[in-house]
What does this fold into?
Amino acid sequence: MVKQVRAEAAPTEAAGAAIVAQDITRRFGDFTAVEGVNLRVEKGEVFGFLGPNGSGKTTVIKMLTGLLPLSEGKAWVEGLDVRAEAEEVRERIGYMSQKFSLYDDLTVTENLTFYGRIYGLPKDRMERRYKEVVELNGLGPYADRQAGKLSGGWKQRLALGCAMLHEPKILFLDEPTAGIDPVARRQLWDLLFELSGQGITFFVTTHYMDEAERCSHVAYIYNARIIADGTPDALKGLPEVTPTGTRRVEITAPEITRALRLVRAMEGVRSATVFGQAIHALVEEEFDLEELEKRLGQQGIQVSEMRPLAPSLEDVFVELTYRRKAELEATSA
Amino acid sequence: MFRGFGAVLYKEVLHIRRDYRTVFFALFIPVLQMIVLGFGIDTNIRQVKTVVFNQDGRQASRELLDRMRNSDTYRIVGYVQSDRELNDAIISARARVGIKIPVDYSDQLLKGGTAQVLVLIDGSDSSVAGQALNVSTAIGFDESLRRVLGSSRGALPVEMRPKLLFNPDSRSPNFFLPGLVAVLLLFFTTFLTALAIVREKEKGTLEQLFVTPVRPLGLLLGKLVPYFGIGLLGLSGLLFFMVTVFRVPIHGNTLLLYALAFPYLFVNLSIGLLISSKANTQPEAMQMSMMVILPTIFFSGYIFPRETMPLPFYLFSFLVPGTYFVNISRGIILRGAGIAHLWMDGAVLLTFGVALLLLAAKRFQKKVIAV
It folds into this structure.
């Protein structure tokens, strides 16, 4: 039995946005997978949705695409109520799931034809879109190859091609680059930006920080709740990330592991981690860097470079996650 | 409501063309059954191996043995000289029946006493034993009557003249092949439909489809129709071989058989959908399909007559949809039955079908779509 839900007009402040979610919650029995999530994604944005595995990313996507009913809250996609106007929503969105979910035994052309028919594209429009999609995704040489025989990157391009064939306004991509090689990854992102330039909104989940840095808007979900939401620059400027009275420095030195132990042992160092050949440390404002250089020198480690550092998105997410964890422990204790 | 039907149909036909193995597998078992049951198995008991211990050995005893031999039920494979040898022959399965004619057989007959003949029957195969038992009793009666009435009357006062209708030679292909039609259709619809949906569940393509405007009914029908088509083709093939190779004529209206196949397929489809709403992997779907197919084989009357089943099994057989279709198929093919004789079976199947489809659609909506 399908529950009849009356379509609710999008609130005025939501009008014009691609996606608006108000306090959406999803429970599976006693378990709350997503709790009170609020989101607003503007048209044409490349929205990066990040979070650890099991934090609720995929559940949010499933709720917004109509795969999962909302336990609580309201959401609009392109101004349409996702519960009451699910059908209309489906016409306007494309979805690419985490797992490759096209038909392995069908060729590239057959998969595209199938999706064209599902959306009921008329013949001439289908022909035009087929040409455009094949060209845009560079699928031409593989048109007659079975999907199962394509490599990872090409599979993703085919999946993207199928998802965008009906000219959706919004594309939901659930970890589109997981498990594909760096070149294919770069190419896929270039393609996303090209499409975004044509006015398509992207809702992308990822684990890669470099991908997140490229997004025009990111949100971070942890333990069913959103703990950061904004442009990458705005998030890096958050006071919680670099609390007053602290600053970030990058220290380049040999014997990085031994150096890290020494840095961590010093007073005034809040946290320190290794990034490639350097240590990123959050230190107190009055912390003496020369003292640090001297201390390392005594241990036979010659510091080659030391410079102030802006926080990376990863720093932002790590810092916010620790804070949230501490809050959760405090409330449960 | 049916949105996406054409697209899914197109895709499903491509799948079948690429992956003919699944279809072959589904065809293989019914075809194998057709060959084995059509050619190999003769359920009529004839020429049962028999050993004889004839202690009497005179004219009268040899006449009795001739009568037994002429019944076509017994084939005398040897003579023995002791009770022990007689027993051994049966235990070692060299013979199914042992006949012992006592030393005073002819004397008793002459005296007007009762001549006793011992007939030992191997009961380990009940149908062979039953036949051997019945025929030996019949020959005994016959022989007694002749002697009691003597030559005073030329003919016996009562003569039973049984006539087997519809299958005068009691050929087993006539019995099995019409029933096989029911099993064949069951394989195609339940098994292949369940497999086709579960495969998409496994691959995650089903979820992908639910983000598109495809409606569940369009999806399900698009998947069903090609297998339904193959099922009807299989039915035609089976009927063709049945008529040409196995010489089982169709006495009734073939079109009626096709028409009544629809409600039956409807039931099986619903069962296939129920399975696919429960099973998450293909092996699971296969196991569950077997749980449906086996009761059909055993309880529908396809192999074992329902009338001789213990009451609980007999009652259970009314719940097996195959029961009704076996009756329809045999009715049309063997007995020349028309719609007037078979409408009840068709109505029951239709009722089953509607009830199960509602149940399946509800479960499908709940379990598969809104995961």
